[in-house]
TrEMBL record, chain A:
<dbReference type="GO" id="GO:0003995">
    <property type="term" value="F:acyl-CoA dehydrogenase activity"/>
</dbReference>
<dbReference type="InterPro" id="IPR009075">
    <property type="entry name" value="AcylCo_DH/oxidase_C"/>
</dbReference>
<dbReference type="GO" id="GO:0050660">
    <property type="term" value="F:flavin adenine dinucleotide binding"/>
</dbReference>
<dbReference type="InterPro" id="IPR009100">
    <property type="entry name" value="AcylCoA_DH/oxidase_NM_dom_sf"/>
</dbReference>
<feature type="domain" description="Acyl-CoA dehydrogenase/oxidase C-terminal">
    <location>
        <begin position="205"/>
        <end position="325"/>
    </location>
</feature>
<dbReference type="InterPro" id="IPR037069">
    <property type="entry name" value="AcylCoA_DH/ox_N_sf"/>
</dbReference>
<comment type="similarity">
    <text>Belongs to the acyl-CoA dehydrogenase family.</text>
</comment>
<keyword id="KW-0560">Oxidoreductase</keyword>
<keyword id="KW-0274">FAD</keyword>
From TrEMBL, chain B:
<dbReference type="InterPro" id="IPR006089">
    <property type="entry name" value="Acyl-CoA_DH_CS"/>
</dbReference>
<feature type="domain" description="Acyl-CoA oxidase/dehydrogenase middle">
    <location>
        <begin position="132"/>
        <end position="227"/>
    </location>
</feature>
<dbReference type="InterPro" id="IPR009100">
    <property type="entry name" value="AcylCoA_DH/oxidase_NM_dom_sf"/>
</dbReference>
<dbReference type="GO" id="GO:0003995">
    <property type="term" value="F:acyl-CoA dehydrogenase activity"/>
</dbReference>
<keyword id="KW-0285">Flavoprotein</keyword>
<dbReference type="InterPro" id="IPR052161">
    <property type="entry name" value="Mycobact_Acyl-CoA_DH"/>
</dbReference>
<dbReference type="InterPro" id="IPR046373">
    <property type="entry name" value="Acyl-CoA_Oxase/DH_mid-dom_sf"/>
</dbReference>
<dbReference type="InterPro" id="IPR036250">
    <property type="entry name" value="AcylCo_DH-like_C"/>
</dbReference>
<comment type="similarity">
    <text>Belongs to the acyl-CoA dehydrogenase family.</text>
</comment>
Amino acid sequence: MGFDMEQTDQLILDTAHRLFTDQCGADVVNGAERGEAPERLRQAILDAGLTLAWVPEAAGGVGGSLALGLNLIRQAAGFALPVPLADALVANLLLAESGLAVTERWAALAFDGDELPVLLQGEVNGVVAAAAGAPEAAVLVVPVTEKGVVKIATFAPSTIEMEHQESLAGEARTRVILKSAIPGQLSGPVDGMTADGLKQFCALVRACQIAGALEKIGELTVGYVKERQQFGRPLGKFQAVQHKVADIAGESALAGAAVEQAVRRVSAHPEPFSGDSDIFLPLATAKVVASEAAGKVTRDAHQAHGAMGFSFEYPLQQYSRRVWSWREEFGSEFYWSERLGMAVAAEISALGAGEVAGCAWDAVSR
Amino acid sequence: MESVRFNFPAPEIDQSVDELRKEVRAFLDEERRSGGFVPVTDCWCAGVDPAFSRKLGRQGWIGVTWPRQYGGRELSALHRYVITEELLVAGAPVHAHWIADRQSGPLILATGTEDMKRNILPRIAAGECFVALGLSEPESGSDLASVRTRAHRVEGGWEITGTKLWSSGAQHCQYMTVLARTGERDPNRRHEGLTQFLVPLDSPGVTVRGIRDMSGVEHFNESHFEKVFVPDDAVLGQVGEGWKQITSELALERSGPERFLSTFVALERALQQGAAAMTGHQAAVVGSIIARIRALRAMSLGVAALLGQGHSPEVEAALVKDLGTRLEQDIIERLREFWPVRMKQGYGDELQYLLSDSLLRQPSFTLRGGTNEVLKGIIARGMGLR
């Protein structure tokens, strides 16, 4: 059973990999920022059903595990996809989890980890400062709160006030302003979902994207220092350059290991959007480590690439700008570190100083 | 394009592993409360207490993965991992048996004679027999293939002459594994002609002299071998296999929890003192350290799983040690912000003592078992750059 599932997952990942390789070359990524909309890529992703990976088969989706979708997100980030696949996946997941109808076109995720818009007497009020995927969306998916309970609401984009902006990486980030807005669809309370649990899950999504992009940055760097010759030999033959590459490999491996552990834990948890302490530790760890690695790896990679890596034409910058943007979203390393430290301190205080020796250790080994 | 994606599989943790962890924790809590040991930082190198090692031997916690007939319990590598990490975070004095449990025992198991296995392994598992490493020399550090210690064939065995340096804990050990040149030195084949011997340290011609380190501990040694005779069956494996043995030993040596938990005991004590009045800034520093340790542990357990599956994850192990040993140092540097480190004995304050001792010991973390520069070279080779 487990093996079959793994095989199916791998099949889907392989299909996606071929699709991205064929349709998402560096020219497509740069072109998207020059105003050439990646229509073929968008359509191919929809046709392949990738945005529905987390939608049950009964609702017309793939019925994939959380691990499958998160691995797909990590893989897509390795192509700097100029399409909001990750956010559409989460938006469709919210629709499916809450029993609402799923769209086969693009769904925008109007959630950025800050306070949820408020539902009162059938009307929604509030602002989402950085929704993802809004410009091309057929539907806005908005987690809202009613008396502390999370529900999912949808809106037709044309009916909602929006201000479109771009992230550092040129990804659409939209201020969504909801004024007495009446949802097109409105779910009941979503079992086991809290606003903080959702924020933790989305932080893991960004951490997976960072991990995928860092691997690509590592590959680009290794390739470049092998090719580029100075002083009569490849840069990679210089020990100083080798050590930079080793540092890139280390930080990237650390982020990868943290992300994989978090993916395993969240996939195995009965309530993955609850913010339960068993998943908080690995999720916070993943976002802290990945976000820290984003800064270190890009610094070393750009140093190894010289001026070439600073040019728009060379692909490195597409990945650098993405990880710089993703590391801030849904909580930076500073935000999650503080929460992690406070959570451990609270556990220690609760037990009383000196009572049990291994409190911090428990938070590490759990 | 060269892949830089590494695989760190999840270990298979069954109930017996969790139970063993609880058992070890309970034992260590009780020992600490009853004064059986005083926690020390870097305990696997600086905490020497042969009596405590014997206690662990009686608990059955040394050599747990070895066959029963040689004193082991045939438990998994993960069982051993759990025992070692619990000992490390408790700051238990485990140096006496550490090397024999981690590396010399498995080496003897893989390459030793049946006699060695029957006579020595059960004594190691009982915490009664300790083994030192004879690798570095006065003229041979990172460039280990340049060792000058020589072994000459004589009637019935070998005669060893040379000097080994920085051997940790040799004064407490009954044996040393000595890397010696047995073949002619060929500049083009530097790794050939090297052989490891298991040498009893009470052999005539052996002198062991302690060397005080900058933290005030005398755990380093200079061991001199003057025409020391060992019989033929002191050879580990085949003559000329020394280099191959050492490189596979190093994979075990490089990825264990002692490569990122050496100063954890200081962090734990700092948190006990600071938890009640923790500021947001302190929490952010502590949280970032804890996240990094968690991630390193996931990597380290992944390497353990790979070793268990029969792989040789040399690059992954080097990554763990490079990142982990730097983290051990960073922990102390970052805690200094809140707990300045001034006095050697910390005025009798346990946290201050652990911090100051950590600081005085930290230069060794990124040197022992292969410097971080050597490790980065291994990683770069793995990336196809050398």
